[in-house]
Structures are given as structure tokens and as C-alpha cells.
Amino acid sequence: MSFCSWGGEKYQNHFDAGIYVCSQCGHELFNSVSKFKHSSPWPAFTDTVHPDSVSKRPEGSHAYKVSCSKCDNGLGHEFLKDGPDGNSRFCIFSSALEFKKGKKEKKGDVKH
């Protein structure tokens, strides 16, 4: 697994409707419905598009390193109990993502 550089703030304040996909293989990772504003310079999400969108490797007792489940591209981290609802927060490198504009329907459902 290789991890992308953090990639700046490209998607930190990006809230258009659509799907964030892996920059290496195009695999669907996050729906814009699950994106939220966070103080870190990385885009933050509460959930993945599909339960198997990412692979996780433990990193300490409260975090996982996450990578694309299709090509193993390093995406960032999942922090447990650190999201806006007390659940997980995915903190993802902008450089690991590409955005595909679509229409927000509901969580897990974006029409292109």
C-alpha cells in the first residue's frame, strides 16, 4: 500500500453534489452527502459509499489507516468516535480523490 501525499486543501471546502472516487482507479469511495466541515485541512466524511469501498488497517486503538479496496491506494485515516454524530470520521487526502459531479439524492445514492 502506498499513501498519497496529503494534497493540500483541494476538497476541504468543496460541497458540490456528487461522488468522490479514488484518484488512481476511479473506485467510488464517498458520497457528498456524508461530507462535513471539519477544522483539519483534509476532507472529512462520516461514511463510505459502500461498506466495502475502503480497506482498513488498525493504527493505534482509536484509528485505522484506510486505502481503496480496489487498488490499495492510501487514502488517509478513519478516527473512531470523532465524527459529528459521535461515530467515525474519515479524514482523507485530497490528492487521493477525484470528484464526479452528480445530483444528491440520499446517502449512498448519487445520480450522474
TrEMBL record:
The keyword Oxidoreductase applies. It is found in: Cytoplasm, Cytoskeleton; Nucleus. Belongs to the MsrB Met sulfoxide reductase family. PROSITE patterns: MSRB. One of its GO terms (molecular function) is peptide-methionine (R)-S-oxide reductase activity. The keyword Metal-binding applies. Its EC number is 1.8.4.12. This is peptide-methionine (R)-S-oxide reductase. Transmembrane segments: none annotated. It comes from the Eukaryota. It holds the Pfam family SelR. GO terms for biological process: innate immune response; protein repair.
